[in-house]
Every structure is written in C-alpha cells, then in structure tokens.
Known about the structure:
Elements: H1 2-17, H2 19-28, H3 32-52, H4 65-74, H5 76-87, H6 99-112, H7 114-141, H8 143-154, H9 157-162, H10 169-184, H11 189-207, H12 211-231, H13 236-262, H14 268-278, H15 281-287, H16 303-314, H17 324-345, H18 355-358, H19 362-376, H20 389-403, H21 412-433, H22 439-462, H23 493-507, E1 517-520, H24 530-535, H25 552-561, E2 565-570, H26 579-582, E3 588-598, E4 601-610
Parallel strand pairs: 1-2
Antiparallel strand pairs: 2-4, 3-4
Amino acid sequence: xxxxxxxxxxxxxxxxxxxxxxxxxxxxxxxxxxxxxxxxxxxxxxxxxxxxxxxxxxxxxxxxxxxxxxxxxxxxxxxxxxxxxxxxxxxxxxxxxxxxxxxxxxxxxxxxxxxxxxxxxxxxxxxxxxxxxxxxxxxxxxxxxxxxxxxxxxxxxxxxxxxxxxxxxxxxxxxxxxxxxxxxxxxxxxxxxxxxxxxxxxxxxxxxxxxxxxxxxxxxxxxxxxxxxxxxxxxxxxxxxxxxxxxxxxxxxxxxxxxxxxxxxxxxxxxxxxxxxxxxxxxxxxxxxxxxxxxxxxxxxxxxxxxxxxxxxxxxxxxxxxxxxxxxxxxxxxxxxxxxxxxxxxxxxxxxxxxxxxxxxxxxxxxxxxxxxxxxxxxxxxxxxxxxxxxxxxxxxxxxxxxxxxxxxxxxxxxxxxxxxxxxxxxxxxxxxxxxxxxxxxxxxxxxxxxxxxxxxxxxxxxxxxxxxxxxxxxxxxxxxxxxxxxxxxxxxxxxxxxxxxxxxxxxxxxxxxxxxxxxxxxxxxxxxxxxxxxxxxxxxxxxxxxxxxxxxxxxxxxxxxxxxxxxxxxxxxxxxxxxxxxxxxxxxxxxxxxxxxxxxxxxxxxxxxxxxxxxxxxxx
Length: 621
C-alpha cells in the first residue's frame, strides 16, 4: 500500500510540474468575461486593498536615509553638481547608485509629480509582487488560492511599511517576491524560459536597488540551481545561461537610464566603492551591533523561523514527495533566512537589526506563508461555496486587528516564543484536520488553523519593542512602525513628503560646480524636519550648532567645507532670528524666503548666499 501511495504522489508531482498544459486546457473553455474579470481583479487589488483595508499611505521617516534617495528622484543632477567632488572619497553619494529604485521612481516623478509619482511607483511595485504570486498559486491550487497570495502580501505590515518611504527596500521586497514566484512557476518546458526571463529581470533590478537585494537575488538563483539539480537537470545549463544573459541585459538597460535620468552612467563603480567604504572597521563599528542581546526584544524576528517551521510541519513527508514549486519556496525562504542570520551574527552586515534591511526578507516569508495557507486549505478550493474562505479569512484577521490595534509590547521571552509556538501548533492542527474524512469538520478546522497561523504572524509582526537601555556593543536603530500600517493614520506624512519634494525647487540649482549647500535648524526640531534635511544629506551638511549661535565647531566646518549657500529651516519664523547678523563675517545675502505648506504641515525656509565662498554676480531673487 505504501508503494502504491508513493507512486500516486509522484504521479501528482509530475503532473504538477507540467501544470501549464492542464491550466491552458481549463482556460480554453472559460468565458472571456471571466478571464477579463479575473485580470481586472488582480490588477485593481492594490487599490481595493488600500481603501478596503485602510492601509497607511506612507510610513514615518525615522532616519534621513529614505529622503537621501528622494533627492535623486526629485533633483539628481543638482546634487552631483554640488557634492560630487566633496563626497567622492567617502562614498556618501552611494544612494545615487540604487538605480533599481531610482529609475522607475524618477520616471514616475517626471510624469506625475511628487506625491502622485510616489503612489504610481508603489502601485507598480505592488503589481510586480502580487501578479507573479497570484499566477503561481493559481497554477498550484486554483484561482481562489491566487487571491490568498494577494491577501497575504497586501495585509503584511512589513511590506506596507517598506512601500511607505523612498528607501530601496520598497523596490527590493517587490522585485524579490516577483522573482521568486517566477522561478517557482510550474509550467511546460516551452514556457519555463519566459518565466526565467522575468525572474532574471526582477532579480537583477533588486540587485541594483540595494546591496542586500543582490544577496537575496544570489541566494534565490543558487537555491533554484540546487533544486533543479535534485529534481530536473535537463536543460539546466541553458537556463543558467539565460538568467546570466538577462542579468547582463538588464544591467545594460539600466546604464543609459541612469545617465539620462540621474546624471551618472556608471553606477557599478560607485557601488563597489561604497561596499569597500562600508567594510572599513570604523564603519562597521558605527552601523553594526557586535552583541546580539538586542534581538531578544524584537518579536517580529520570530516570524521567519516560525513560518519556516510551519512550512516544514505542513509538508512533513519525504523530500521527493514534495512538489517542486513548493519545495523551492520552502528551500529559498530557509536559505535566505539562514544567510541573513549569518550576515548579522557571524559577519558584520546589519541584515536583521536595521528594519530597512530585514524588511526585504519578507518577500520569501510572505510567499512561504501563502503556500502554507493554501496547503492547509487545499480541501476547500474544489468547493464553489468555500473556496474563497481562506482569502477572506486572511483579510478578516487584518480587519479584526484594525478594530483595536493595540498589541502590548513584548520580546522573545515568554510571549514572543509562546505566540510563535501557537503559530506552529495551529499549522500542525490544520494538517491533522485535513486528514479527517468528515467534510464539515475539515473546513471548520481548516479555517481555525488559518486564523491561528495568520493572527499569530500578525501579532508577532506588530508587537512593539519593549523599552530597554542601550546595551554595550549595540547600535541604536529606530523601531519600525509596523503597528500602524493597517488602519493607521497618515497624519502629516503625505503633507511632509509633498513639502520635501518642493524644497529642491525652492533652493534652485547650483550656479557652478562645487557650490555646496549646508543647513541649520533648531536642534530640538530635527525629529519633525528629518525628512527635509535628508534631501541635502542630513548630518553631512548640517551645521554642528543651531544659528544664530555660531560656535567654534561651526566656524571650523564652514572653513573646511566653504559652502556657498546656507539653508535655514524651522517650524516657525523664530528660526531666522539673528541669523543674518551671525553670518556677517561671511558676507551673507538673503536670496529668498518662503513658507512651504501642505495641509497642517508648514516649514519656514530661508536661503542665504555666503559671498566669501560664492561667485560674484549672484543676485537676490
């Protein structure tokens, strides 16, 4: 009997690996209006989710890093003119090399403007993630399962938060999610290369969006090769060559785009220089925690291993009996998590402690979670009346959280570990229920298991980090705002972004190469104006003290940097009191002043020209 069962399983695996022919047969008899309706539902899913789930439109900018990318979206050429010479030795313009994010965002900005361009780019990123995942799950489990994948991605606080700023994790998490789905796609041989082309483009774009994207893309391809060696070696060499060709072609296409859109054709050299610069001991000490004690307070880091263990529980059988697409999804999620753990705790890359980095890991985590839910709900998909319940359950869990989004703060012990165990136990119970012959018990037990898995993952993700002191050998990184991503208020976030994108137009373009600009603002207002000062590289171009007080450190900085312009910012007109007098030794002239306002968010700005460092002929505007 065991032999017969194994043969049946293997037959199903073989049929699944060539599933595109079956799907094509099914679709041939589907009415056109249904196919169009299905396509429209998928393409409109981000919009429906945004309003239906009340997703937060933008995320708080907790570091200047996101707006240090915004500057290249809004006014890249001016940044190169002002700072290229001053910053070349320190790789402080490395953000300009993140072309996987900057090029599509720059195009959207030029076509639609600041805030509209931001949302157009995010809509594209959302489709890049959910469309391949939808097709993958639709081929594995059916049409309703495809919407499970969409629901998992569109309710994930980590992904929503990543999409909420101009940091490159917004692009990486989408590119990697889409690329993994393309590599896992079950299809006939004649279609496999088309999906490989898509995977090659997306994974290469992720690699050039951020360095951690290259790490994820490399592990994705390596895992794909290993799975193919284990399962199907036929034509593997040709597929590897195709991926390499697409990587080269995509990189080649990004080069002229970078030059025309951003003003820098060579982004490969600066990327390598930045990696060398950040690999210096002084930089490692500044950005990476040597101690691991901080991790015990971060509950969301338990989500990846909990999902992986749930995946193992649901697919607990001989490896050769696990269908190839599911095997790849589980394997790549495991490999990427192990690599991130190694880079964080056994190397010196902050892959887990900085949420701008760790968020990219959720591409494989979301895909693995979606597969777990679909596998648990396999018995429901053939039923017309119940096939939509799994996707509806995922959405219902998110909506239930929105009713009272106040999960208490906790770390790993004891509550984080307890919730993670509940997640795994619920996955195991769901698998046991699937073995029961009574249909009524099966679908009720399955939905309970889906609720348990989804709710546990959500609770771990949004749990605030408990307050604790800064431990020795650790680096402070702000806690991510995952708790407010579902049903949270945007507050002034959209208004602040609109003002941020208007600031470069107020400042104007440089009149000569090396016309550096530095900034001053009340030091107690840095938190509220962090996004704006990031436009001009934040701390690098911020005077040590706050005008009108001109300290010895300010004078030394001015003599070393020799800036031609000083930008003064503040939340009130008082920020400019006495500034002109304090700058008198530098022959200042006020070029222009205004109030940049959007909604209730307002910033007073003054632009001064320092005659001692500037060029003659500059007039007040």
